[in-house]
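User: Structure tokens for this complex, please. No commentary.
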Amino acid sequence: MKAYRNDAWLLMLPAAAVMAFVGVIPLVAVFNYALHDIFSLQDVHWVGVEWYEEIVTSSRFHGSLARSLLFSAVVLLVQVPLGVGLALLLRGTGRWAVGVLMLVALPLVVPWNMIGMMWLGLINPETGIAGQALVAAGIGFDWKFTALHTWILLVVMDTWHWIGLVVILAYAGLSGISPDYYRAAAIDGASRVAVFRFIELPKIAGPLGIVLLLRFVDSFMIYTEAFAINAGGPDMATHFLAIDLGEEIKGFSYGSAAARSMVYFLIVITVVWAFVRISGLSRQEDAA
Amino acid sequence: MRGVAVKLAVFGALAAFILLPLVQTFLLSFMSTLPRDGMVEGEWTLINYRNIMADPDLTGSIINSLIYVSLNVALCIGAGLPAAYALARNRFVGDRHFLFLLLAFRVTPPVVLSLPIFILFANVGLVNTPVGIALVHCLFNLPIAIWILESFISAVPKEFDETAFIDGHSLPSFMLRQLIPAIAPGIGVAAFFCFIFSWVEVVFARILTVTAGKPITMAINALFGFQTDIGLVMAMTVVSLLPGVGMIWFVRKHIARGFVMRA
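Assistant:
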């Protein structure tokens, strides 16, 4: 049972101050910019919600939104089953598990702007290992001009980058299951599917929720890696939401960029709110 | 036996998939990739690494990165530990809202806040310094530090605190002398994640370093030009991987349990 005492806020002050400075103040500033037309920081005009109207009614925004949603859906459908499957195989391999976890953690420590470059090097048909193999196998892989190939490259690269997160978190959930459950299931003659559904899934549901949230948000707002591969091309085929925003900031249209930022923030915050409600995070807090 | 064979095949394929881009990078970093006197292109050499050591911009960028990442870890642990303790032991007005706020800022894409953060930091003189980057990376690292530390502190029974207070420890003295040793693995894991996420972040690190204090990621970007020395780029990439690989080795025993928010 936790003690109810409001002076605990004193201990929260340093953290709250930092979050206010780097999070809350910039967010309020974005909200404010979004209501203005900003020619320069000295020349600012009130425009109300015009930027928002322009953005949410533009076909460009709808296109980017659809592409980002599709990308997130593909990424989740590929990475979550794959990662959970690997974690299930990893269970009970003893010392090997640590080695495999270290291996899949490797891509997580690569600086994000290097990832696109490493993969472009890998599939280079003249010097890359994978590129030469593809040429030898007679497969024409034209990531520069064929939209489907760019998408395949992005999904494979993103899976390479993030599969470790899924495996590590799913494995953490699985390793908390006592062997007694498995023995009881074996005595009852439970099928493999039943063991997964009634023993393993409930145990990894918590970590998996976090995986889903982090992977959704990060893939939905993918920027650095996608830009490095093809800068949104070919012909806008990989032009995601964050690339739109990056272009506006580079083009100095701050008011519009701020409104776009707010729209994205609202989408993200809605997803987080839904996640907290569905996962019952707040109810667990009450029970604790 | 069939089960073992399947596992070996699956993890072998996984290892190949994960290592392939890394091996390619590693190999290229030991090759001469530009026409040079007395060298054939593709010749095995250490020249790329020698070039890094000879270029003060490159060595300086490695030091810049190490400075702001260390500062960020110190900030996150320093501010995160008291907050995590408060959240683990007490309930108070707005505690759940604070946790929601942390989650919201953890998942807010940096590109959304990059513009006002640049203007705000420019106004208070935090552009082009490692301090600015260290501070802004708290946006996503402080929530992680607080979650991890909170779960480790919650695992310590409350009687542990009460005994210490009866023994005459004040709150700061209890935290320094009793709590920190008791949750040392948790601090290690939190530091690991803060280090990694700060090290790989690019968007903030780019906008906050206009003229000076360039981190290693931006130094690598700057190597691209009319005639890019790919070998040098790959050698810098290998160097940029070393601290992360070292950190993975350092926390290998905890890697499977550290990130679970409410296990």
